[in-house]
Amino acid sequence: MADGVLLDVQHLKKYFRLDRRQTLHAVDDVSFQIRTGETLGLVGESGCGKTTVGRTLARLYEPDGGKILFHGQDIGAFSRRDIKKNNLASKIQMIFQDPYASLNPYFTIGEIISEGLELHHIGESRAERNEMVYELLRRVGLHTEHANRFPHEFSGGQRQRVGIARALALNPEFIICDEATSALDVSVQAQVLNMLIDLKESMGLTYLVVAHDLSLVRYISDRVAVMYLGQLVEAGSVGEVYGHPMHPYTIGLLEAVPIADPDYEAEHLSTPVQGDIGSPVNPGPGCRFAGRCPYGDDECRRRTPELTETGGDHQVACFHPVK
Length: 323
What we know:
Layout: E1 5-17, E2 23-35, E3 39-43, H1 50-57, E4 65-70, E5 73-74, H2 80-85, E6 92-95, H3 109-119, H4 126-139, H5 156-168, E7 174-178, H6 186-203, E8 206-211, H7 214-220, E9 223-228, E10 231-237, H8 238-243, H9 248-255, H10 262-267, H11 298-302, E11 308-309, E12 314-316
Parallel strand pairs: 3-8, 3-9, 6-7, 7-8
Antiparallel strand pairs: 1-2, 1-4, 4-5, 9-10, 10-12, 11-12
């Protein structure tokens, strides 16, 4: 395992059996690494499998193949007993997309945050755990008196801050942010993003940011991986992927991002990706983007390209990368 690599995902697979004949290949042979203290953005259209990747890494889903090496240990092979024995929940936490659905409406905010502390026997007494809750609330920009209120008394941004406080309660090393700001207003998104960046620096955290908003990912991430129908098509540093995209799908995604400049938009007409999105159900051989790619040929439809180094911190899975 390379020095400084916290998470090494190798050929990860997660399938969902729909019936006796059909299987949804949600995540199909995905590999990437995340270094300690780094933020990796995982982007792609809705339904591409990026949330499934996050949930599988957190062991909310059982992987169907591959390895998930965390500190060199294959946590993908852990049984439920192993997960508890190795205290995995205290090392890997998840911030969920919907701040409305992810909080128990019958619990106070204090109870929601302290639940993990109680389950993991952190704190000698209820009073000590309460002090931990108060400190977590202050850390995410809320007040101590909020501990006695219920989720319905808060705005969406405040609820997401509660979700972040809950994720921080066990002092994790790695946090998976699953569309953590997509349900929030734009101004609130910026506040939450800046808070996540500050927490990363102050607590030494490592993030996987799952999102479809390319501007958000560019702002918060060090590296980015682009996903299409269950597979990675491009990965690298933010500067490389955004500045020199090589996969036709990545280029299409970036061209679809609106620029707040009417003169620029008038001169640079974007060309949207053409064609219908394929199906991840029982996919055949070949590149899954071949049917929509302007460069697709018989080789693309016959063989699946592998994610290959192109020089520097840049990888692309394409037989005809754009130079």
